[in-house]
């Protein structure tokens, strides 16, 4: 299985026995002190077809993404070190609009070069591994995508059903490196790769009956003996799997910490979680994880963000003792391509490399056209001008798309018989962002770029299991966006608390309810219980009957909410599915499949009618004029200040 890989096109990858022989240290010197060698291991991960620093949904430049910018850091990092090796940790064939253009519009035939692969070929990658998203478009697409790669890829825990490996589980490459005394050494670098075994669930339609995915640690135990028999000087695990604590039960999605316990692995490059290690708060207080030094059970490890946001740098101090190279010390740095100032401004820390941009120029320009072209139509206008006061089509379309996405996935689980609800919020609702910050898509053709107008954030789909009681508390927390209205007052009372983020105003589809704003909020602005006896959510029902607070439900939401974002009670209780796709990708697929959508609000929630004579107002965009939703009792009453228009609710 071991292969002697030589890349004649790159000086950094040239190796040979002649070099090793001429560089051998005299025996007397070798006996006196060990040879010392510094090796810099560089990592990219979760690039997701982000080459150009551009947000295709916003149709604007974006300094926070792009391999073209990461490449600038790669060049700098290589210039700083005598020896360096570059690896990729998977999820490179899917994820951005450029990737969707290739998969859905252009196609990828045998002999074609995928633009992501073309960009990566322009850099000195030694090896890569597969991520879960490599399987999203089926095995033919994967085979065509990998065929033009000028660097090898490995994956040890995926095989064809007849038992043959999908690709090499591991390889050994010879690398000519220079020690601190200036002498050359040829080191054998062993490389083994892994992918989350959940690919069989996430891409069942593409993989069922064709591939078998096994537990990451079990696969390592199976293949490491053969790899170690090839006598590598250093073994690097390309683990497209994240870092999580807890007892190992097998088939973990995030298994890097468990993998680090195995003898024979020297360095672990991680990914998949789209987080930064060391330093990310998610990795604090996990036994076996050193979140400052960057170590898993004492072994150097790194996870450099996503979409090219960081370059992973693992600096190894190697010493040769008794004929074997060992890691004597190490330093880990996830180096960013940008920084964010306290006032949320983006400051670039890398320039885009022209040679990388050139590899995808034609496909980038074609993607811009693709994003601007209609992919479907909406029979009704979609806007969010009144999303905070009545059920709204801009939220409805998100809920419908989330349900359509999770239904087939949940049908494969033990929760397949539980009712599916969907939680979504109006992201663009004015507020501090100003009177232009609203969704407004007219009826007619809808382009992919319009989806960012509906779903602003790059969240991923997640599903939680909750009880009826937790559904009520979830909605109580959401209802904190409203100020308390005193029915005895005769003066004007603003309805919306401007300090409450609209993205925390979740509407849950699949149940019906009313919100009584004459009651105090049950939760404070931070999600803490403020008024234990208060209940704004009234008439909460499922399937036409009062909700059973002990019944169990599935709620489709996003990773922000499921991980505790917004401090919603119950949302972090039981995550039953961490899907691999973005919420807005789910919306795009929904539109493409439906061809014509008609996202009319179904009226599953409303404000409880207010007594006559109470003056309750809210502000929205002046562009809302003439677009009052049917059934909403409201009227424009003049200037709302700061460019907004003021409306009054009628009882």
From TrEMBL:
It is found in: Cell envelope. The keyword Iron does not apply. InterPro entries: 5'-Nucleotdase_C, 5'-Nucleotdase_C_sf, 5'-Nucleotdase_CS, 5_nucleotidase/apyrase, Calcineurin-like_PHP, CpdB_N, Metallo-depent_PP-like, TAT_signal. Keywords: Hydrolase, Metal-binding, Multifunctional enzyme, Nucleotide-binding, Signal. One of its GO terms (biological process) is nucleotide catabolic process. Its cofactor is a divalent metal cation. The keyword Metal-binding applies. Residues 435-571 form the 5'-Nucleotidase C-terminal domain. One of its GO terms (cellular component) is outer membrane-bounded periplasmic space. One of its GO terms (molecular function) is nucleotide binding. Residues 39-274 form the Calcineurin-like phosphoesterase domain. It catalyses: a nucleoside 2',3'-cyclic phosphate + H2O = a nucleoside 3'-phosphate + H(+); a ribonucleoside 3'-phosphate + H2O = a ribonucleoside + phosphate. NCBIfam families: PRK09420.1. Belongs to the 5'-nucleotidase family. This is Bifunctional 2',3'-cyclic-nucleotide 2'-phosphodiesterase/3'-nucleotidase. It comes from Bosea caraganae.
């Amino acid at each position: 299985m071991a292969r002697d890989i030589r890349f004649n096109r790159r000086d950094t990858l040239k190796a040979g026995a002649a070099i090793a022989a001429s560089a051998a240290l005299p025996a007397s010197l070798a006996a006196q002190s060990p040879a010392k060698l510094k090796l810099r291991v560089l990592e990219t991960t979760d690039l997701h077809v982000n080459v150009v620093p551009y947000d295709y949904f916003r149709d604007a430049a974006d300094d926070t993404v792009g391999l073209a910018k990461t490449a600038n850091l790669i060049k700098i990092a290589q210039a700083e070190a005598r020896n360096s090796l570059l690896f990729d940790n998977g999820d490179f064939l899917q994820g951005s609009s450029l990737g969707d253009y290739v998969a859905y519009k252009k196609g990828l035939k045998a002999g074609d070069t995928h633009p992501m692969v073309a960009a990566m070929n322009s850099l000195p990658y030694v090896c890569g591994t597969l991520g879960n998203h490599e399987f999203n478009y089926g095995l033919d697409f994967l085979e065509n995508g990998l065929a033009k790669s000028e660097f090898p890829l490995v994956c040890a825990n995926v095989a064809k059903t007849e038992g043959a490996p999908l690709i090499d589980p591991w390889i050994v490459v010879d690398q000519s490196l220079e020690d601190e005394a200036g002498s050359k050494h040829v080191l054998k670098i062993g490389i083994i790769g892994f992918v989350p075994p959940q690919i069989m669930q996430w891409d069942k339609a593409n993989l069922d009956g064709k591939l078998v995915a096994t537990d990451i640690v079990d696969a390592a135990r199976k293949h490491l003996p053969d790899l170690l028999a090839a006598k590598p000087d250093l073994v690097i695990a390309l683990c497209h799997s994240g870092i999580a604590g807890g007892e190992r039960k097998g088939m973990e999605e995030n298994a890097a910490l468990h993998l680090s316990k195995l003898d024979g692995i020297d360095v672990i490059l991680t990914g998949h979680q789209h987080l930064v290690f060391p330093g990310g708060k998610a990795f604090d207080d996990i036994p076996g994880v050193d979140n400052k030094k960057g170590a898993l059970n004492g072994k150097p490890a790194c996870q450099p963000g996503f979409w090219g946001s960081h370059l992973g740098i693992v600096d190894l101090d190697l010493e040769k003792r008794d004929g074997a190279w060992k890691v004597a010390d190490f330093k880990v740095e996830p180096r960013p391509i940008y920084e964010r100032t306290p006032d949320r401004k983006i400051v670039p820390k890398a320039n885009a490399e022209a040679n990388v941009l050139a590899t995808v120029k034609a496909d980038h320009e074609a993607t811009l056209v693709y994003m601007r072209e209609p992919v479907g139509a909406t029979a009704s206008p979609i806007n969010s001008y009144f999303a905070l006061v009545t059920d709204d089509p801009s939220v409805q379309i998100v809920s419908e798309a989330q349900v359509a996405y999770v239904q087939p996935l949940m049908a494969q689980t033990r929760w397949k018989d539980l009712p599916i609800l969907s939680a979504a919020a109006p992201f663009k609702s004015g507020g501090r962002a100003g009177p232009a910050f609203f969704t407004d898509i007219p009826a007619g053709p809808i382009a992919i770029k319009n989806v960012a107008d509906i779903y602003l954030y790059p969240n991923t789909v997640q599903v939680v299991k909750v009880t009826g009681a937790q559904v009520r508390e979830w909605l109580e927390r959401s209802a904190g966006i409203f100020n308390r209205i005193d029915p005895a007052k005769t003066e004007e009372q603003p309805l919306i608390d401007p300090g409450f983020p609209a993205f925390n105003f979740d509407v849950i589809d699949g149940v019906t309810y009313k919100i009584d704003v004459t009651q105090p909020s049950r939760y404070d602005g931070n999600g803490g219980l403020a008024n234990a006896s208060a209940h704004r959510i009234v008439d909460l029902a499922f399937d036409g009957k009062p909700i059973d607070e002990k019944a169990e439900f599935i709620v489709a939401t996003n990773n922000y909410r499921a991980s505790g974002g917004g401090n919603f009670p119950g949302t972090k209780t039981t995550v039953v599915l961490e899907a691999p796709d973005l919420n807005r990708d789910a919306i795009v697929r929904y539109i493409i499949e439906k061809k014509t959508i008609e996202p009319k609000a179904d009226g599953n929630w409303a404000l409880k009618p207010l007594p006559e004579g109470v003056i309750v107002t809210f502000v929205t965009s002046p562009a809302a004029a003439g677009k009052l939703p049917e059934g909403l009792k409201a009227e424009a009453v003049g200037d709302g200040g700061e460019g907004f228009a003021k409306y009054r609710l009628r009882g």
